[in-house]
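Before drawing any conclusions, I looked closely at one protein's amino acid sequence and its backbone structure tokens, quoted below without any editing.
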Amino acid sequence: MTSVVLLLLPTLSEGPLARVDLSWSRQGTPLEASLVDSAAGRLRGDVRVSETGLRVDAGCARERCTIALDGLAGAVDAALPALGDVLLDDAPRPSMPTRRSLRRSWSRAWRSTGRLLTAGLRSAAEGWLEAGAGPRPRLSPAAIGGAWAALGESLRAGELAAAGAYDEAVVRALAARIEAAPVAAPSPPNAAPTDPTLRPDATAASPTLLIDWPGATRAQLGIAWPTGPDDAVRDSVLAGDFESVLMQRLREREGYTYGVEPTWGDGWAGAVFDVATESVVAAIAAAREELAGVQRVDAATIEAATRRLRGRALALADTLAGRLALARLVPFPEVAPKALASVGRTSVVVVGDASVLAAALGPDTLLMSRCELMYGRGEGLVRPRRWR
């Protein structure tokens, strides 16, 4: 039997403020994020929240969904039963969120290069497509009810965290209420598969995945590598900030791009950036060269990256939300590592005009259209061909 994990941080100097958030692992159902947004909207409309000035934070990231209450401690304590009412109530009506708004959001999703690049990186690094926007969800009342039931099951294995001047008894009462909620129906049939056999070999060579965007004058590039709890310093050295080796090489020395942004997923870290179409091949080669040479990074660079990580931790500690985030993160190292581990297998994704890029990238390039990537084929998810 699963139970809610409680994370209760001691009161420091927050005064009368408190923050309580409930988070859980994403199940991959296409409607999950929309249902969380819907629940947050109903929570904001509850008089126990709307008349007290509380802030409601809600949303789904790559791995977890969260809904939180933040504000005066007394108001947060009084509103926690409303959070339970919203999340443990019956499934929302099919019109909440409306079918029309869901169809519009799905039809627009594949027009975003950022979402295409993220979905492509998940495909290349994790071995399947959870397809950031797809597959197209079923919008029947039964499907919405099933997705709501799956969300309820996730809550029972979630985490309830609190920081500030909260009332511990009220927080524990909400946890007990979640654990005592009735067992939900099975998950809907279009939940994302998690077949471990699809995960690529960590040492195998990875071809480039090219997502066709006809007529694009620039290309969006993403490169990912496996990561673990002990690799925070290495990932920061590679793509953590302006001083990272990828930023210094691709922007300062080569002038291929304006900036390099870090990104993360399930067991992988990476970097994304945009370049001119004619510079794609050279930029990929430069990025791979920097990743391959990460074990040669000098001790001074490693020490500086470690200090910057500790500085970010101190900055997070200034807010209630930051304190809760720090409590969940792997502790930043107090002492800089003597050397950095190699990155192993790397995965590269390019969003650009295939008519221009395919020949330059080589015959082993995997080609996929935008619609294939974001919507999938049939009832399942797009499964890329196994890496050669």
